[in-house]
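Dear all,

This email documents one entry for the complex benchmark we are building for the journal club exercise. For each entry we list the sequence lines for every component of the assembly. Then comes the predicted three-dimensional structure of the complex as a token string, followed by one or two observations. Please use this as the template for your own entries, and keep the labels exactly as they appear.
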Amino acid sequence: MAQIRTLLDLCRRRGFLYQSAEIYGGLRGAYDYGPLGVEMKKNILNSWWQRNVYSRDDVVGIDTSILTPHPVLKASGHVDEFTDLLVDCTLTKERFRPDKAPQVTLDKNGHLPITAPDKETAQQWKKSIGEQFAPNVLVTVEGKRLLLHVDHVVEPVKGHAGKIVFKMNNEQAAFELNYHGYVEPNTNSPFLTDSRPFNLMFKTFLDPIDPIDRVIQTTMNQAGESKPTVREEVDKVLKPSTVYLRPETAQGVFVNFEQVVRTMKTKPPFGIAQVGKSFRNEIRLEHGIFRTPEFEQLELEYFVAPWEAKHFYKYWREQRYRWWLEHATHPENFRQRDHESDEMAHYATGCTDVEYLYPWGWGEVEGVAHRGNYDLTQHIKNTGANFEIVDEKPCISPDVEGEIDLIPKETPARYIPHVVESSCGLNRAMLAYLCDAFHQVEEGKGKPVRNVLKLHPRLAPIKCAVMPLTGKEEFIPLTKKVAKSLRRMGWYTVVESQKLKIGKRYYRHDEIGTPWCVTVDYQSLEDETVTIRDRDTGHQERVHWKQVQTFIGDKLME
Ligand code: ATP
């Protein structure tokens, strides 16, 4: 865990990741990507798109709306089923007995403070995690982490410290505040309600007039006539304008299925790829960008004939895992985990997670699922859309294991396609590859350790740093010429001409994962050669400046 703190500190210091709205104290779970973070994210996305779309002739892209109407997510099951369990704390002011229970003192802003074993650790936590906590806290009850609304018991007066006090059966409860702001009770609280489902979707309204004003107006107009209850009115008026921030990008693909087939003149097996933001009102926000309310997904929905679904599920399971390993420095820290049957959605017949061994344990980075034809069928039921494929020459792959009975006896074959989905979290991918690449080098006795990010060159934010050996003006024209030739290739290239010793400049680039540093020195002035330094070996090669482009191009293709 010490390493992750150092890594998060590096990310903040060097412009990968910032706490969102930091100057206002930050917003829990919200992160902004700095100049290097945005490049790295784009590089992961590009590698994914290159592999899944450009290098194939059976996948096309799409970009659908984030705002999703109620009927779509009702049909997909998200309105009723996309939930986690939530427990409310019903502690009231009357039960507020500061004399009887251990206390957690809030700071003057009403936030839970950080308690750490010693000053130094506290400072490290503050730096890497930030001090901001939401007014809700998480408690662990019977091994499950649950959200506690503490609003009811917190009475901080502006400028004064407030207190949250939890009391259990007149016994003192031992609460321990850890650095995530979790409160861990050692026993069950009598003030916790039964758990209830909590929908993870963010809801909003697409209506120029505030829907609540509309309800009040309608209720007032009708008062004395039919006297409708406010609840009925609220439902009636709100429903048509209710929209959700999509919880996954996939539904946008399914509702456009027929349009893509028609406009692209395609038929199964083929895929639709989509990259974009998704939103989930997660109860637990944890481990920096691992679990956040706003995140990006790289999703591929691959549509196949029913008798080919198992074959393609196996195929995509392998393909996707291979992609993850290709960019890994430590492939042993990635694994595939097949879901148990009780873990899967009821309509899925297979699901495999790709997991990475984060410093806190294994965590999902991607799910590959055989979703059957559930989604398309649901949208057909609700809209009457025509998603049926009528195929004169149906594809039959050589190993349609166990599904021979599904192959139609006659043509044209008629079927609703099945879907194999791969859904990768872009932010989690970035965190996994940062953890995977991070290591510290000991330069020798008495010298401080230094950080190196051994990122795969394709993922590295900056591909090349071009630098004059010293601040002498004579080096500048060739330095600029080399940088220009690399920028022309679309590679993020920077010119490093600060007055730092060349070794220091190399180390600064090692820390952010730049794979190559090109140096213009005295010999360059005579014969137009430059040196290229390799981040991982420290080895330097001398080439003519015009060859740098090919050198880097070849390496990036490896
Ligand atoms: P988890 O079990 O970790 O909550 P999930 O099974 O709900 O994940 P999926 O619905 O399969 O996740 O979403 C596909 C991918 O989207 C996940 O593998 C993950 O990489 C990413 N993802 C899901 N939820 C979040 C989130 N709140 N923050 C960041 N990434 C997420």
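Observations: The chain has a mean pLDDT of 81. The chain has four domains: 34-64+247-434, 83-197, 202-244, 462-557.
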